[in-house]
Amino acid sequence: MTINVAILGCSGRMGRNLIQAASEHEYITLVGGSVRASSSFVNFDLGELAGIGALGKKTSTQLNDLLVADVFIDFTSIESTLENVKWCQQHKKAIVIGTTGFSAKQVQVIEQAGKTIPIVLAPNTSVGVNLLFKLVEITAKAIGDYTDIEIFEAHHRFKKDAPSGTAMKIGQVIADTLGRNLEKCAVYGREGLSDERKNDTIGFATIRAGDIVGEHTVFFADLGERLEITHKASSRMTFALGAMRAVTWLASANAGYYTMQDVLGLTD
Ligand SMILES: NC(=O)c1ccc[n+]([C@@H]2O[C@H](COP(=O)([O-])OP(=O)(O)OC[C@H]3O[C@@H](n4cnc5c(N)ncnc54)[C@H](OP(=O)(O)O)[C@@H]3O)[C@@H](O)[C@H]2O)c1
Fold first, then answer.
1. Which atom in ligand 1 lies closest to the alpha carbon of residue 158?
2. Which domain holds residue 64?
3. 243 and 224, same structural domain?
4. Same domain (yes/no): 240, 227
5. Same domain flag for 134 and 222
6. Is 268 within a domain?
7. In the beta sheet, which residues pair with residue 34?
8. Computed over its alpha carbons, how large is the radius of gyration of the chain?
9. pLDDT tens string for the chain (268 positions)?
10. What is the CATH number of the domain that holds 188?
11. Domains in the chain: how many in total?
């Protein structure tokens, strides 16, 4: 089995890790990658871009140059990903989306596209984080109703969206498990005097600093004890390897809208 894969936004921080992970994968053939027309990496060797030596495949500015790919991987930006999804629909291509920060409406657009092509939308492709989602669900079911739930996340100084897509997803998993409406019960940051913490809220705290790859901790705190579930990513390669798992799974999937929970067999 070999799966032809193209990486969109391949000159980005994740793009370069994805090039390495794809080029080293047993069942994946990296056929190309895209950059913006204004990029200084137009017509650049993908391997040189990733710092792993020439691979003999150059960057393109047109998705039409990448039609030989079966599955596309997109870690770019919201606007760019939405355009790329449209293109994949037109050309009946599967796509793994790692881009974060979509609004509920934009997620609906992607979900809709899943009616005609196979799509994995994964705000976090790390296997550990996806297990954390499951652990959080189990914990919320057991003690979520009477503990204070707070979600802390830390990322590098360049990250644009906050709280992270992963933190929002953790909040959503907890809200769904406890039958709460996240839009109503989320509290983003605290400052100054306030009333006592309301039990049915879900708090979010964010820091942005240096080169932190990504850390998430969920607190379930009662009087006298607290449970903390933590995940720490130490290299972007973990996200790239998770994306490869999504690619190999999606390559044989029917049209549909999927998550990493589906990829990892963690759905009930
Ligand atoms: N799912 C996960 O596990 C995971 C993990 C890490 C990051 N992410 C997310 O992945 C996305 C990318 O992260 P990153 O750290 O790799 O960011 P980055 O270094 O800024 O890379 C983004 C890449 O996308 C390209 N791009 C952006 N807008 C574009 C457009 N309109 N047209 C064409 N190319 C465009 C950029 O090109 P230029 O350089 O020319 O602007 C760049 O190559 C973010 O949303 C981030 O939150 C997800």
1. 15
2. 3-121+236-263
3. no
4. no
5. yes
6. no
7. 8, 60
8. 19
9. 899 999 999 999 999 999 999 999 999 999 999 999 999 999 999 999 999 999 999 999 999 999 999 999 999 999 999 999 999 999 999 999 999 989 989 999 999 999 999 999 998 899 999 999 999 999 999 999 999 999 999 999 999 999 998 999 999 999 999 999 999 999 998 999 989 999 999 999 999 999 999 999 999 999 999 999 999 999 999 999 999 999 999 999 999 999 999 999 988 7
10. 3.30.360.10
11. 2
- Provide the 10 A C-beta neighbour count for residue 28: 22
Length of the chain: 268
DSSP 8-state secondary structure symbol assigned to residue 45: B
Same domain, 228 and 134: yes
Which residue owns the Cα nearest ligand 1 atom 47? 100
Q: What tokens appear for 210 in the block?
A: 């240096």
Please identify every residue annotated as catalytic. 155, 159
Which among 242, 246, 230, 237 is positioned nearest to 213, based on CA atoms? 237
This prediction has a pTM of 0.88
Mutate to test the pocket of ligand 1, among 8, 63, 100, 168 (most ligand atoms within 8 A of CB): 100
Q: CATH number of the domain that 61 lies in? A: 3.40.50.720
